[in-house]
């Protein structure tokens, strides 16, 4: 895109395509977006597709909050709109992506920043050029112990991990906290403050906030792992060797009682999956073509091993990217309404995958074809 068009003119014309192009230019050139992609990568696809997916998410979020109309009604200038997008909306988008990608690391990083800025044991120091940088980007502010002299120097970042290697690793605190007690404490605020003090004393150097976060997280039991299938490594190499799966495991066969309980739980999960399909059909008003598109979008987003980007899905299905987002959010909203114990979610995932696989293989079959066997069992 050689040159951005006027935001005010695009809003006056209600030119959604032009607004999207302007927003894409800003997202693709924003330093926080590029830093996020460089540090965390993204789904399989080109860099342009990653920018397009992030732009689509931001564009729809602005539509949901009715920000475009607000900009127009409030008489925002082009400079004001760009300032808000650059300093509020796009950073918020990156924060949401980080929170989804690494929820515990993101939460701990925020807690570390809060303790550094509020605790009396730490102080914001001047940089080499004499500026305190208290108003600059938080990640680049210099902090140290409040008891240190103002001329305390900052050592080379590369030697800091070696200086801090004798700082003790903190045992994970497994107490529950947060909304509905779904998150673990990991480490208390007092223990985290003591850890930061130990790091500063071991390094004897002022450090940027981003460096302190990295060193502190290396001493805490943070768990941001992702689940992957057992055959992922073999599948990625393209070679299948049956001997790779012949592992002599311990006999952990369930008892007869556990078999019965698991069977009942599986039947309950299958019924929930059936109800989910019914609710999704009702959400698209029982229109076959719309439901077929929804099935294909959900399959590619959540069950396709290739993990295509939203832009690739839209391109392959010849539909708009906003429609892909719409069907994705529709499916997520219905799944989030399901009340199920944590240990049964994997079973539900398998049941939903089976439903959608059957729909993809036989798109013309009626819903009763899939529900009939379980309804017969329920009647008996």
What does this protein structure show overall?
With 380 residues, the protein is mainly alpha-helical. It folds into 3 domains: 7-101, no CATH class; 105-217, no CATH class; 256-379, no CATH class. The chain contains 17 helices and 5 strands. It has a 3-stranded antiparallel sheet with strand order 1-2-5. The protein is flat, with a radius of gyration of 26 Å. The model is unreliable at 233-238 and 366-380 (pLDDT under 50).
Q: What profile does the largest beta sheet have?
A: 3 strands, antiparallel
Structural class computed from helices and strand pairing: mainly alpha
Helical coverage, percent range: 55-70%
Strand order of the largest sheet: 1-2-5
Tell me the span between the first and last alpha carbons. Answer: 65 Å
Question: pLDDT under 50 segments (min length 5)?
Answer: 233-238, 366-380
Mean pLDDT: 83
The protein's oligomeric status is: single chain
Taken as a percent bin, the fraction of beta residues is under 5%
The total beta strand count reads 5
What gross morphology would you assign?
A: flat
Key attributes of the depicted protein:
380 residues; mainly alpha; three-stranded antiparallel β-sheet; two-stranded antiparallel sheet; 17 helices; 5 strands; 60% helix; flat; disordered C terminus
How would you briefly describe this protein structure?
The chain is mainly alpha-helical and 380 residues long.
